[in-house]
Amino acid sequence: MLADAIASQRGMKVPNILIRDDVDAAVLEKLKNRAARKGRSLQAELQNLLREASEKKEPLSQRESLRRLISLISNKNQTDSAELLREDRAR
Q1: Model's pTM, two decimal places?
Q2: 3-state SS string over the chain?
Q3: pLDDT tens-place string over residues 8-31
């Protein structure tokens, strides 16, 4: 793999992703079955799972969500709600 090649050029050893002694037997069996269904080795399936997990965007914090909302609405002219109610009632 590319990561192995880069690591070996830098004199680093790429660790195994999974140490089987540290994983519950039922979990390990499910991972093996998942890998087999997809035609992958256990190692390849674990690498794929880690890659997918690392590519997922993390949800915004409440503070960041609020900051974005404020920036969206602060640049727009807001109509007075009382004016809108009067217009609606006049129909």
Answers
A1: 0.48
A2: CHHHHHHHHCCCCCCCCCCHHHCCHHHHHHHHHHHHHCCCCHHHHHHHHHHHHHHCCCCCCHHHHHHHHHHHHHCCCCCCHHHHHHHHHHC
A3: 555 555 556 656 677 788 988 998
